[in-house]
Each structure stands twice: as structure tokens, then as C-alpha cells.
Amino acid sequence: MTWLVTGGAGYIGAHVVRAFQDAVRATGDERLRPVVLDDLSSGHADFVPEDVPLVRASVVDADAVAHALAEHAVTGVVHLAGYKYAGVSVQRPLHTYEQNVTGTARLLEAMAGAGVDRIVFSSSAAVYGTPDVDVVTEATATAPESPYGESKLIGEWLLRDQGVATGLAHTSLRYFNVVGSGSPDLYDSSPHNLFPLVLDALTTGRTPRINGADYPTPDGTCVRDYVHVADLAVSHVAAARALADGRPLERVYNLGSGDGMSVAQIMTTVAQVTGIDFTPEVGPRRPGDPARIVASGEAAARDLDWAMRHTPEQMVASAWDAHRRTT
């Protein structure tokens, strides 16, 4: 009995895998042993612990997924694999839909064939677009503004419809800007995410850049929930355990802070933590970036052991430590 973590060699996925291992050690619950499926297009094989099986394959390859489900006696799936770049998805919509929609459909098809009836889906705050409320809840209307956000919403619909058709037990976790590191050997290598872009600029002697300072926010820069990756991973395991135990969950949960920070505020925190004084350059907006998304995490705190356990300073410090060890 295992849980398949698709995208488990990626930044978030690798933290989820280690959270599963921690849960097995803490509880002795062998049902939570992880297996990773990842095509390594953006993941790293050395992120996967030596005692965790790694299946190198894409979720788009239904035969490979079906084989992995059978070979490793999978009883549930945490689905994190996908193309996660909202801005770039505007230029590559067909690729985004292939990876995120077709991939999810083929995964669900393989799961149905193998009798695997539990899934935790990695969704996104991008499904909300630019909401007209200060703090979004799960009841806030969805209005994605990028192919990435649309593909994540369609993924939620696929789970919903498969649940009606087959009894699939599922929940989708919508989250926001995931940052920090839970272990110095796990780092965010995305070429598009704020923290790695800023830290890479500082270590190479360049000036960090803000994408747009003319948004309708207090300081003109985008406001986001920034959540620590290790906190996020704990709630994925909590969701998996609930599904494994047959406990009912909501269809979707926001993993948010109820508060937010602007990109400019993050830049100030980075300067304070690293000790490197800088004034960021300001460039044009990125396509697909809404001005503000901040969410309540109350429902997830009730059901999924969700909590903001790290301060902004700790988020930056852990990311900085991991980044320096890889450069």
C-alpha cells in the first residue's frame, strides 16, 4: 500500500514526499509510504530519497501511470505534476492544457482502471483571477485569467465529475506563493518564481527586479499570500490520511494566511535577512498576474492541520540557506 506522488521530484513534491516519510515514522502508518512519478522535466532525481521508488514517466503517458499504480500497489495519489507557470502559459496555452488537463484526465483514467479511488489535487489560487474581495474563501467565484489558472479549474472539474461517476474520493488544495525550504538540500529552481529570481540575482551581483509597480495596491506591487513549503506539505499528508480513513473532506480548500505581503515588502525582507542592501529595478507587468490574491485558511485549519508556522523572515532565511548551498 503506497501513495503515488506525481511531480514528487519537484520543489513542492519533494517536500510532500518527505512529509509522507515523516508521517510514517511518527505514526507507523505504512499506508502512507510514498512512490514518486516524475518525468524530470523540471524536477530533480536527487530530490527523491534513496529509499523512495522513482518512476521516470509523465502523467500524459497513461500506460506508464497504469504500470506504476499496479507495480507499487498504489492506494491513493497526490497529483502535483503539471506545467505551473501562469505567465508563460499565456504564450504556451496548448502545452499547458496538454500537461495539466490531458495529463490529469489520463491519470484519472489509469486510476479508474487500477481501482485507485483517492486523490489529492494540487490546484492554485490562479483559479480566482483577480477577485473583488479582500480575502477569498472557497465560496469566492472563480474567474481565472490565464491558461494555467483555467487548466487548474478544469482539473478540479474532472475530479468532481469522476467523483459523481465512480465514487472517487477527492479534494483539491488551492494555494498561493509557495516559498522557503524545509531542508537545505531542497530548493526552488523555477526560472519564474519570485524567491529564486531574487536570490539568484543577489548571488550573481545583479539587481532584483519587480514585475510591475503600477497595480491598484498600496505600494503598486502585487500582493500575495506567501506560504512556507513545509507547512504546505503537512496539509497534503493530512488530506491523504483523511481520504485513506474514509473521512469526508470539502471539495476544495484554500491554504492561505488570511493576510498578505506585497512584492516590495518581500524585497525589503530579503534585504534584511541576507544583509545585502539593494533597490529593486522595476519592469513591466507579467501577463496573467492579478494585482492581489489573499485567502482565508480557516477551513483547512479545521480539517487539514493547516497553519502558518513560519514568519516571512524564516521563509526568506530558509530559502536563502538552500539557495547558497546550491551555488
UniProtKB/TrEMBL annotation:
It catalyses: UDP-alpha-D-glucose = UDP-alpha-D-galactose. It comes from the Bacteria. The keyword Repeat does not apply. InterPro entries: Epimerase_deHydtase (IPR001509), NAD(P)-bd_dom_sf (IPR036291), UDP_G4E (IPR005886). It is an enzyme of class 5 (isomerase). Residues 3-256 form the NAD-dependent epimerase/dehydratase domain. Pathway: Carbohydrate metabolism; galactose metabolism. Its EC number is 5.1.3.2. Its cofactor is NAD(+). NCBIfam families: galE. PANTHER family: UDP-ARABINOSE 4-EPIMERASE 1 (PTHR43725:SF53), UDP-GLUCOSE 4-EPIMERASE (PTHR43725). Belongs to the NAD(P)-dependent epimerase/dehydratase family. This is UDP-glucose 4-epimerase. The lineage of its organism: Bacteria, Bacillati, Actinomycetota, Actinomycetes, Micrococcales.
